[in-house]
Design brief:
Blueprint (H helix, E strand, L loop, with lengths): L8 H11 L2 H22 L4 H18 L9 H20 L22 H12 L3 H12 L4 H8 L3 H19 L7
Helix pairs in contact: 1-2, 2-3, 2-4, 2-6, 3-4, 4-7, 5-8, 6-7, 6-8, 7-8
Length: 184
């Protein structure tokens, strides 16, 4: 048998779903945990601890429901949907009140360092001010690298709505991040 790292996602899914192969699922987790954590971190406004908890919950749900995965979509699309649902469920449980643009934003848990660190922090702060729907669409398309069609499927909304959310989010981000030119 080839090493697990040489197997395709489809082979690993089949081994895990049909044979209960935990090593196969562990390889799927290794391959996709970075994307899931990154997306959830953006959705949780930089709360790394909450993002990690939600990622763990998402992977546990994925393990339990692996036999329901249909190969009609990419595994990442299906996994993103599970992670997104875990985030939504957590928000409902805690009755999270979203902060408005004029209110103070919490600082992300760990400040990035190195070249471009200040710009990344500015982007994280700006992303945190986006409405949930826009932030979710941006996270799906840019952090999870889903196409607009895949994001629409994962988010359970029409394709046109995803495109609108992306457009509006980009406009809001541009307004917050790009310095305005002063007119003389």
């Amino acid at each position: 048998m080839p090493p697990r790292s040489a197997s395709t996602d489809a082979e690993l899914i089949l081994a895990a779903a049909q044979g209960g192969d935990r090593e196969a699922f562990a390889e799927l987790v290794r391959r996709h945990q970075s994307m899931v954590r990154s997306v959830l971190r953006r959705l949780t406004n930089g709360d790394a601890a909450l993002a990690d908890d939600l990622a763990q919950e998402a992977f546990l749900l994925a393990w339990r429901r692996l036999d329901t995965f249909r190969f009609e979509a990419r595994f990442t699309t299906w996994l993103y949907r599970i992670a997104f649902n875990a985030w939504q469920s957590e928000r409902r449980k805690t009755h999270e009140v979203l902060l408005g643009e004029d209110e103070a934003m919490p600082e992300p848990d760990a400040a990035p360092s190195g070249p471009g660190a200040e710009e990344r922090m500015d982007l994280e702060r700006a992303l945190a001010t986006l409405p949930d729907a826009e932030r979710a669409a941006i996270a799906a398309c840019y952090a999870a690298d889903l196409s607009h069609v895949e994001a629409a499927e994962a988010l359970g909304i029409p394709l046109g709505t995803v495109k609108t959310h992306i457009l509006r989010a980009k406009e809001r981000l541009r307004a917050r991040l790009v310095p305005k030119k002063e007119t003389p």
